[in-house]
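Our preliminary data section would be incomplete without showing what the modeling component actually yields. Below, a chain of 142 amino acids is followed by its predicted structure, encoded as C-alpha cells that our downstream tools consume directly.
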Amino acid sequence: MSDAADPYRSRNLLGIPETRLPGDFVDVEVAAALADHQEPRDIAREHPESPLVWAELAQDALSDGDDIAAYAYARTGYHRGLDALRRAGWRGQGPIPASHAPNRGFLKALALLGETSRRIGDDAEAVRVHEFLQDADPSLLA
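Predicted structure:
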C-alpha cells in the first residue's frame, strides 16, 4: 500500500506542524559565503548567530583531529539553532525538515553534536541526539 493510500502513513498523526526557519535566515547568506570559499572563522565573527558556520567549524576541527573543539563548536551551533527554531515557533517537538534549506545548518550542527558526543564518550548525549534527529527528520538517519 502506498503512503498516499494509507492515511496513517501520509500525515503527521500528532498534528505537530513542521518548523521551517525563515527563507531569509542567516544560514542562507552563510551557505553562499562558504560556497564562495570564505573562511568559516571570518564568517563566525560576522554571523555568530549562524548554526551553519559553527557546524562548519566543528567539521573542520574533526578533520584536524580535535574532538573537544569540534564538540564545543557543534554545541554552539546547536544552541544557536535552538534559539532560531524557538523564534520560528518550534516548541520542543515536531518535524524540522532537512528538505528546507534554512534548517540544514541546525540539523548539521545537531548531527555533529551527536558524533562528537560519541567520540568524547558522552554516550547518553549521543543517544539523545540520535532520538532528536529521528524526530526532526528521519530521512537524516536513513
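The CA atoms of residues 89 and 111 lie 22 Å apart. The mean pLDDT is 92. Preliminary results of this kind motivate Aim 1 of the renewal.
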